[in-house]
Structures are given as structure tokens and as C-alpha cells.
Design a protein that fits this description.
The complex is a heterotrimer of chains A (about 475), B (about 475) and C (about 100). Helices cover about 35% and strands about 15% of the residues of chain B. Chain C is of the alpha+beta class and about 100 residues long. The longest helix of chain C is centred in the first third of the chain and has 18 residues. The chains are: A alpha+beta (about 475), B alpha/beta (about 475), C alpha+beta (about 100).
């Protein structure tokens, strides 16, 4: 589906590239031994290294390297066995060293791929240009005092992976699909928790527009402060529209950094970035080149979990699920695990239906994630057991599920307690069938004179008589036999 | 008996062990000397209370038979580039006003753990940028040596306060740091021994950084033996410094066996420069003869890229410094000069906090790294640096050490060479190449100029072979029999 | 390379050092002299020579991922010119 914006002078298309900053899951910071955890008292998770005291030196955290390599492998990217840390020089209050240790010239990870799962069930590849490691900055608080900003360095020095996409994204939908997929991969890998609201995954959106058919890229704006998938999609729409308006009013879009304002639904130039930047990158002389062996990379590769794309393929191939259903189930690792636990020993399609139709509806209604589901995978699996061995019918199962959600009880107990066990005893069903036939001479007549549609009515009557518990196939068969 | 302030470390060790005097007595003598010589401006901060306390502890250890080594009870001065816990640390700069580190540098901590007694923090060129100790915010240091005309002379730099303190008998020894010659050149100017170890031998953790790929701490002493003893206490692998070499610290003093028979001493022809001072030339020739007389084999070698070393250094060092000094921004420590915005505060603080030479180097550094110039200057300099490093590697295929002059002249008067930065840079012409290559170098005083001022020769060794270097220096020292001292 | 006043101003801004207009001319002269001097390197043939960033002949040491530092706010803030409620305070920043 092509995303085209109409303008007064013709049709426009949008070109988007994303730079995602993903905080590496690790106990301690990238170059110091202080803790990374979120939400501590200001400046408590700060070492003398993080505060850039004179003479302090960086020593790299091996786990962060492993996480970056793991992520690179998850993005099907080439791992560079030699990478180099550079200093990126700029002044800012929450950047204590006056430079950020990053990797410009020789990043640890090179080109890779992310596959987008689009809403219509189709997929598309988006190129990853690179992934590099760098230090996070601290936080500045600007709203607490009329004349001063306050600086907390707790986050300063935490390991980040900057993941840069190629400008392969064409629409807000693409942006949403890309961010969700990337987040899913990071979570599967356990390298970043992907929580955009806590800022552990952040993105800068590079947007430019061009007339449909143009080959050359026009100037782009880098939009910052986009802290949810929804905002990223909105920011693209708003910024693209702004740029089109600028061009159509005869102006020119300048290459600049802009701030997304979700409250006013606009983007505006960032004052602190007004000066053209010249980061004066050069190799950090406090660190040596990072050299990895192929064996090290292979060892990490051997421990990679099954990732969403592979899992989706498996669900489609081995389980026969539709692309859409498989995509939905694998998007979150927790969901996929839940599903697989439910599907074990059952019809995978039936299990998928139960998770997607029944369980998701409940989760949505309650506004909770699958990890807080009121019905555990084990409980749902047991419910499917009852269906499988004909203890209950499909219709009763839905009722039982509702009770499970409401009362938190196990399916078996509910069936027992409420006497919902399916009647499979031929004698009991026969009694009910005979009774219905005896009481409905008119309908019997109609049936015999060729109105077979009335068969359904008989089934309904028998089910009613048995409180819905009679085994439907048995009822069908018996009615057929008796009405002959 | 020799005055306590005239002892070497090795003699003081023997005296302390023999009970001739206590560490407290030794320290008191130096505190008096330090106070009497305030006119030299060798110290930024004197720490007599700390010194006496630590000397007392040392005497206690010795009494209990638990002295921790050769440095136990030895009063030393610490260059004010080393962060010292609870003691003002300035790097000779206004911008570190009032900065009291809550931590101790690895090297000064090692010295303390070895029992040495800190007398105070010595004056230095601001952020170690200088060759005459005239860029310090705390004023210039005066060389205890005087020429025949009696004018005040510079002690060299940047470790000028340390050199003056050791030469002037205010401390038995001192720490220095050397980025392009900052230990060796002032040692030569002040008639003492100064050793810059192999890059990676001493930890840089807790030393205010100037140029990270070059900075190296080392001892400044009154004998080669003392340098060996003190280096042993300073050196060692430090996991907190990623560039610290994981190598064992040998017993350097044990290497001083006086035997250099068959030692191959290289004489790099490119160090014999046009317009070389005949006095320096003569000193060098005498040094060559001394090594020959000691049984060494003299071999002419070529280090063809020597002439490119200084400009290479003056691109790389300022570039690294421009980033290393970015942290002095008025936010977390030191001076703050207010401004209406954050950027104004930065610019005001750094304009007032940094002196002229530091500003020049920071600006040069920023320029050579800036967009469009990085390849032409910085990358180019790094390529030439490899050529220089390769020169040394090649030379070391045929020689064990190199012998060169340390500095192109004796100490000069305070008013000279002040206005032309480039002329000042030329002071380091003989010391910078080894710095760029990371090689260890030592300056040994071997003679006096016509003005009666000390002159030193430099020996340059193979990486992590300070033992051979010190052995050769010990022989050179003995042969030269330098016994001059400031009047 | 001869630096003009405008270039010096730009570099000074990059380095966040305030340089008064009265000092610009003199400083431009000094910096130009230093640059002209280092430019003698242009004459050196470095074709095919890899840049040398470090003379240390060891590989990058790695640290295990344990929390071994931090939790020392007093030390971190002890030397700060201005502190408020555990934060560093600076002149207000407009984003």
C-alpha cells in the first residue's frame, strides 16, 4: 500500500529513516561499575567515572559487548570483529565528559535486516545500516526552577545500542511496524526491554518528502522526543505535512533537528541544536580497539533463541496458522510462549483461536498484558483438555472460560461444581430425544414430508432439555436415526 | 654525616634501617627546607601535617619490623597533576579552583602504600602544557640553579616544581608526568635524573589527563638507583586503566649491576641537528665515549622520521587535550563563572579558567579534529606517528638502547622564548619522538654548560625493558660522575 | 593555513571558550603560526601507512558485569559549585 500525500502541486511521498537508541540490559554501566537500574534517587547510581572526575578512565563491560553482538546476530547483520570507540565531542549539561564515547568509524555491527509484518499480512524488508555501542547521557530537568536546570547523572554512562535503519520506510504504518518488530526482536533476545515510556528505547525520526517519481532525496529533518510508537507515527505525518506546506509555499526545508510536541501536535526547531554541530570524532585514546574472535561470535550465535520471524514461519508451516494469526502470536515473546504452552497436545489452530479470539478480548477489556492474564496458559490448556476428551462441548467451554476469568477457578472444578459435564451416555440422550419426538408430532410430520431444515430445531430442543450438556454429534446422529 | 636533605633514597633507606635517624626526623628536615625555599615556588600546596603523620606511621612500622619496602619513610613531592584524596589538586590551573578529590590516583596511592611520605603538591605548567613552568596559574617556578649572570632561570617543564624540589633538596624525590618530555627535559635543566617509563607501565588512573595516548608518570630523583627504586613502587598493572599493561614489575634496582659489556648503544644520526649547540654536541660525544669505555658497542642508527616528530606531537597532543579538557565546564567541580545561559556559563568559565597556552592548544586541537580537517591533520599525524614508531622498532633490531641529548640547551632565563609558542615547542625536540613511540626514556645529568648549568643525556630503551635502560643509565651516571648541585 | 577571525570565533565557540573581539586578531595570528608549522607534515609520504592510535600492544581489557561502584553521591557532589536536592544545578537550558 503506497502512502501518498496530496498537495496543491501534486502528489508527495515520504522517505523515513529511524535511529533507535536501545538501552542495553546489563547490571552495570558500559564503562563503569555503577548500577543501571531505573528510578533511583538522583545521582546515586553515579561513580566518579560517570561524573567525569579528573583522571577517571573507562573500562568496558563485557556483557554489553555480548548484548550488542547478540542483537547484531538477531538483526541478521554482519559482526565486525574489530571495532573502535570514538569520542563524539559536544557540550551539554548532562554529558559530563564533554564527549560521548561512541563508535563512528568502525561500529561493532554492520548491515542487517528487519522484516516488517504489515497489517495486510504481507511482509517487507527494511535495511539496517549499522548498530554501534555508545554511552547514554544523564537527564536534565528544566521545569522545576525558573532560572536553573537540574542534572541527574544516574543514566549517564549506561550502555546504548544505536540502531540505524536505511531510509527504507515510506509511511507511518511502516514506522509503526518497524518499531514494533525491532522491539519484539530486542525483547526476544533479552538485550533491551523496549520500554519506550521509560525511555529505555527511544527513537529519532529522519523525515523528508519528495514528489512522487523523484529519485533524489531532499533535505531531511531529524525529529526528536518521540517516545512511543504512536507518537513516532504521528510525528511522521505531521512533519511530512509541514515540509510539503513549506515547499508548496515556495520555501525550502532546512536540514535541522526538530522537537516533537505531542500536546500541540507539531514539530518545532530545537534551540539547543541551533548551532551547526561539528562533533570532531576521533578514536578514544583511553580505549583500545575491541577485537572479537569468530569463535566468540559463533558461541553467542549458538545461544540465540528462536526469533519472531523463524517462529512465525514455524507456526505457519508446522501448525498451519495464517500469516496474520502467526504474526500476532509471535509479536511478543510472552504471548508466543503462552500460546505454545496452550497448543501443546492440542489442535494448534484451535489453540490459536482461543488465544487470539477469547483470551485477547479479555486482556484488552481488562487492559493488561499477557503476563498478568487472569487465566494462565496451563489453565487454558486444561480447558482445552476437557474439550478434547468430550467432557464439555465447545459452547459450554466458552461459558466455562468466562467463569474462569471472573472467578479464577480451574475449568475442571467449574464443570464439576456446575454440573456442566457433557452427556455422552447413549441412554440419557435417547430418553431426551424420545421425549422431544413424542412431544412434537407436528414437527415430526414436517420433517418426514421433506423439511430437513427442521432438524436443527430438534437439536435445539434436545440441548435445551439437557441443559446444553448433551454431546451434539451424538444428538444429531440419534435424531437422524429415529426420525427416519 | 651528610645532611638529611642531601641523601639519596637508597642512602636514606640505609640510614632509616640502621636507625641513624627516623622518618619523622628525615621528614622534618625536608619540611624546613621546603618552607625555607618558598621563593622557588616549587609547591602549590604543602602538606606538612600529612607528611609528619605518615612519617610517624612509617617509624611505627619500622619499629615493629614491618617496614613495607625501600620507599618506607621516604619524603617525596607529588606533581599537582596526581589526584590526592582530601588534598587540593589543581593541575596548575585556575579552572580547578578548590578541587579536592575524594580519591587517590593509582600511582600516588602505590607510593603511599609503599610507605612514602607526601610533602606536598608541586607546581607545574597548566595541565602539563609547557616546557618552562611559566604557564602555571600559581606562578612560575624558579630553577634552584643560577647561571654566572645570576639571572633567574626556568626549571623546565611541565614537571618544573618537581624538578626544582628535587634539585633544591626540598624532597628526596618527586613524581612527574611526561607527555612529550615533561619529566626528562626539566630533569636535564635541573641536574637530576628523570625517567619516563614505557607507556602502559604506570597507571594513568587519577592523573589529570593531558594527552591520553602519551601521558606517563615517572620518577624524578637524584640518582639512577633512586629512579629504579621509586619506579618499582609506582609501576604495576591497574585494571582501572584500559591502557595499563598487564606485565610484572621486576626488581629494577637489581638490574643495576654495572655491566654493559656488549650492550649495543645506538646513536641516531638525525638527532645531530643543524645549528646544534656545540656544548650539547660535545656532551653527547663524551657520553658516547663513556658508554664505549664501559664496554658497550656503539652503533650508528637512523631514525629517519625524527624531524617530523614535533609537528606530529603538536597535532595529536592538542587534539586529545581538547577532548580531555572538555570536562572542565563549571558544573561538577572547580571554577564557575556565571553566565545568562548554560553556554555562556561554559564559555565564561573556560575563558577565565584556562590560561593562554591551554586555550591555544584546546583551540588547535578542536581545529585539527573539525569537519574537513580531520584527515589532513589528525589522521595524517597518526600515520606519521606510525612511521616514527616503526623507526624505533627497526633501530631496536640492531641496538638495545639509544643515546641522545635530552634537551637542545641548558635552562634559560625566565624572560626568554616566552612570546613565540613554536620556539618553546622546540625544547622537546629530542624527547618527543620516544613519547610518540611509547618508548621508555631517562635523562641523566652528565655535565655542565659554560654557564655552569647542568646538562643531561637521554637514553631511550625498548618497550618494557626499563631494566636495561636503567642499567645503562647507571653506568653513564657513574662514568660522568656528575656531582654538581645548585649553589 | 591562515585562520581568519571568523574561523577562530567558530572554533572558540565549538570549544566553549569566550574570546573577546579585541583578542581575536592576535589569537588568529598565533594559531595560524602553529598550524603553518605543523603543516610541514604534508611533505611526508604516508601513502599506504595505517594511522597509529595507540602504542599499547595489548587487547582491550574487559570488565565483568557486576555493580561494583556508584552509590557515593556525597563524593560525586562534594566539589560542585551549585547543588540542589541532590542534583547539579546549572543555568536554565531551553531545549
Amino acid at each position: 500500500m503506497t502512502y501518498i500525500l496530496e498537495g496543491d502541486t501534486g502528489d508527495w511521498e515520504v522517505v523515513i529513516g529511524l535511529e533507535v537508541h536501545a538501552q542495553i540490559i546489563s547490571n552495570s554501566k558500559l564503562f563503569s561499575g555503577s548500577a543501571t537500574s531505573f528510578g533511583a534517587e538522583p545521582n546515586t547510581h553515579v561513580s566518579l567515572v560517570d561524573a567525569a572526575m579528573p583522571g577517571m578512565l573507562p573500562v568496558i563491560n563485557e556483557h554489553c559487548i555480548e548484548q550488542a553482538v547478540r542483537t547484531g546476530l538477531g538483526l541478521k547483520a554482519e559482526i565486525n570483529l574489530v571495532s573502535v570507540f570514538d569520542r563524539k565531542n559536544y557540550f551539554y549539561a548532562d554529558l559530563p565528559q564533554g564527549y560521548q564515547i561512541s563508535q563512528l568509524y568502525h561500529p561493532i555491527v554492520g548491515e542487517g535486516t528487519v522484516i516488517l509484518d504489515l497489517d495486510d499480512g504481507s511482509t517487507r524488508e527494511v535495511g539496517i545500516e549499522r548498530l554501534h555501542m555508545e554511552q547514554d547521557a544523564g537527564k536534565s530537568m528544566h521545569d522545576q526552577d525558573p532560572k536553573r536546570s537540574f542534572i541527574d547523572l544516574n543514566r549517564s554512562g549506561t550502555g546504548l545500542m544505536e540502531i540505524v535503519s536505511r531510509p527504507d520506510l515510506k509511511s507511518p504504518e511502516d514506522v509503526g511496524a518497524y518499531l514494533r518488530k525491532l522491539r519484539s526482536i530486542l525483547r526476544y533476545l533479552g538485550t533491551c526491554d523496549g520500554n519506550m515510556d521509560e525511555g529505555s528505547m527511544r527513537c529519532d525520526v529522519n523525515v523528508s518528502v519528495r514528489k512522487v517519481g523523484e529519485i533524489e532525496l531532499r533535505n531531511r529533518a531529524e525529529v526528536k522526543n518521540v517516545n512511543s510508537v504512536r507518537f513516532a507515527m504521528q510525528a511522521v505525518e505531521i512533519e511530512a505535512r509541514r515540509q510539503i506546506d513549506v515547499y508548496e509555499d515556495g520555501g525550502d526545508v532546512i536540514q535541522e533537528t526538530r522537537l516533537f510536541d505531542s500536546v500541540n501536535g507539531e514539530t518545532r526547531p530545537m534551540r539547543s541544536k541551533e548551532h551547526a554541530h561539528d562533533y570532531r570524532y576521533f578514536p578514544d585514546p583511553d580505549l583500545l580497539p575491541l577485537e572479537l574472535t569468530q569463535e566468540y561470535v559463533d558461541n553467542i550465535k549458538a545461544t540465540l533463541p528462536e526469533l519472531p520471524d523463524e517462529r512465525k514461519a514455524r507456526y505457519m508451516g508446522a501448525f498451519g496458522l495464517s500469516a496474520y494469526d502467526a504474526g500476532v502470536l509471535v509479536a511478543e515473546r510472552d504471548t508466543a510462549q503462552y500460546y505454545e504452552e496452550v497448543a501443546a497436545g492440542h489442535d494448534p489452530k484451535l489453540a490459536a483461536n482461543w488465544v487470539i479470539s477469547n483470551l485477547f478480548a479479555v486482556l484488552k477489556e481488562k487492559g493488561v498484558g499477557i503476563s498478568e492474564s487472569p487465566v494462565s496458559a496451563k489453565s487454558l490448556s486444561k480447558l482445552l483438555d476437557l474439550l478434547k476428551d468430550d467432557t464439555i462441548s465447545g459452547r459450554i467451554a466458552k461459558d466455562v472460560f468466562e467463569i474462569m476469568v471472573a472467578e479464577g477457578k480451574e475449568a475442571e472444578a467449574i464443570v464439576e461444581e456446575k454440573g456442566l459435564k457433557q452427556i455422552t451416555d447413549t441412554g440419557a440422550i435417547e430418553t431426551a430425544v424420545d421425549e422431544v419426538i413424542a412431544n412434537s408430532p407436528e414437527q415430526v410430520e414436517q420433517y418426514k414430508s421433506g423439511n430437513e431444515k427442521i432438524a436443527g430445531w430438534f437439536v435445539g430442543q434436545v440441548m435445551k432439555a439437557t441443559g446444553g450438556k448433551a454431546n451434539p454429534p451424538m444428538v444429531n446422529q440419534m435424531l437422524k436415526d429415529k426420525l427416519k | 654525616m651528610t645532611k638529611l636533605t642531601d641523601l639519596t633514597i637508597s642512602a636514606a633507606r640505609d640510614g632509616l634501617n640502621g636507625g641513624d635517624f627516623t622518618a619523622v626526623e628525615l621528614t622534618e628536615a625536608h619540611i624546613v627546607a621546603m618552607e625555607d625555599a618558598r621563593g622557588l615556588n616549587a609547591f602549590i600546596t604543602e602538606t606538612p601535617d600529612i607528611a609528619l603523620e605518615r612519617a610517624g606511621e612509617s617509624d611505627g612500622r619500622r619499629k615493629a619490623g614491618a617496614a613495607v619496602g625501600a620507599m618506607d619513610g621516604i619524603p617525596v613531592a607529588i606533581k599537582d597533576l596526581f589526584c590526592t584524596e582530601g588534598v587540593l589538586t589543581t593541575a596548575g590551573s585556575h579552572i580547578l579552583d578548590g578541587f579536592t578529590p575524594p580519591y587517590e590516583s593509582t600511582v600516588s596511592g602505590n607510593l603511599r602504600a609503599a610507605g612514602s611520605v607526601m610533602l606536598g603538591k608541586t607546581n607545574m605548567d597548566e595541565f602539563a602544557m609547557g616546557s618552562a613552568n611559566i604557564t602555571s596559574y600559581y606562578g612560575n617556578v624558579i630553577n634552584p640553579w643560577k647561571g654566572k649572570d645570576g639571572k633567574d632561570l626556568v626549571p623546565g617543564g611541565s614537571s618544573g616544581g618537581s624538578a626544582a624540589a628535587v634539585a633544591g633538596r626540598l624532597a628526596l624525590a618527586a613524581t612527574g608526568t611526561d607527555t612529550g618530555g615533561s619529566i626528562r627535559q626539566p630533569a636535564s635543566f635541573s641536574g637530576i635524573v628523570g625517567l619516563k617509563p614505557t607507556y602502559g607501565r604506570c597507571s594513568r588512573w587519577g592523573i589529570v589527563a593531558f594527552a591520553s595516548s602519551l601521558d606517563q608518570a615517572g620518577p624524578m630523583t637524584r640518582s639512577v638507583r633512586d629512579a629504579a627504586i621509586m619506579l618499582g613502587a609506582m609501576a604495576g598493572h591497574d585494571p582501572k586503566d584500559s591502557t595499563s599493561a598487564p606485565v610484572e614489575v621486576p626488581d629494577f634496582e637489581a638490574a643495576l649491576n654495572g655491566d654493559i659489556k656488549g650492550l649495543r648503544v645506538g646513536i641516531p644520526k638525525e638527532y645531530r641537528m643543524d645549528g646544534m649547540d656545540p656544548e650539547i654536541d660535545k656532551l653527547w660525544s663524551e657520553g658516547i665515549d663513556m658508554m664505549k669505555d664501559g664496554g658497550a658497542e656503539i652503533i650508528d642508527v637512523s631514525l629517519p622520521n625524527t624531524e617530523h616528530a614535533l609537528p606530529t606531537y603538536y597535532i595529536i597532543a592538542p587534539a586529545e587535550a581538547s577532548a580531555n579538557l572538555a570536562r572542565y565546564d563549571g558544573v561538577r567541580y572547580g571554577l564557575r563563572v556565571d553566565g545568562d545561559s548554560l553556554d555562556e556559563m561554559y564559555a565564561n568559565t573556560r575563558a577565565e579558567g584556562f590560561g593562554d597556552e591551554v586555550q591555544r592548544r584546546v583551540l588547535i586541537g578542536a581545529y585539527v579534529l573539525s569537519a574537513g580537517f580531520y584527515d589532513a591533520y589528525y589522521r595524517k599525524a597518526q600515520r606519521v606517528r606510525r612511521l616514527i614508531s616503526n623507526d624505533f622498532k627497526k633501530a631496536y633490531e640492531s641496538v638495545d638502547v639509544l643515546l641522545t641529548p635530552t634537551a637542545p640547551s641548558a635552562a634559560f632565563a625566565i624572560a626568554e622564548k616566552m612570546d613565540d609558542p613554536v620556539a618553546m615547542y622546540l625544547n622537546d625536540v629530542f624527547t618527543v619522538p620516544a613519547s610518540l613511540a611509547g618508548m621508555p626514556g631517562i635523562s641523566v645529568p652528565t655535565g655542565l654548560s659554560h654557564q655552569g648549568l647542568p646538562l643531561g643525556l637521554q637514553l631511550i630503551g625498548k618497550p618494557f625493558d626499563e631494566e636495561t635502560l636503567l642499567k645503562a643509565a647507571d653506568v653513564l651516571e657513574a662514568a660522568a660522575g656528575f656531582d654538581g648541585r645548585p649553589a | 593555513m591562515s585562520l581568519d577571525n571568523e574561523t577562530v570565533k567558530n572554533i572558540a565557540n565549538l570549544a566553549r571558550i569566550k574570546v573577546g573581539d579585541d583578542k581575536l586578531y592576535h589569537l588568529a595570528g598565533e594559531l595560524s603560526a602553529i598550524l603553518s608549522w605543523v603543516e610541514q607534515l604534508n611533505a611526508v609520504d604516508t601513502e599506504g601507512v595505517e594511522p597509529l592510535a595507540s602504542v599499547v600492544d595489548v587487547t582491550l581489557p574487559l570488565r565483568t558485569d557486576v555493580v561494583s561502584d556508584g552509590d557515593c553521591r556525597d563524593k560525586v557532589l562534594a566539589n560542585a559549585p551549585e547543588v540542589e536536592d541532590g542534583f547539579y544545578a546549572v543555568p536554565k537550558v531551553v531545549e
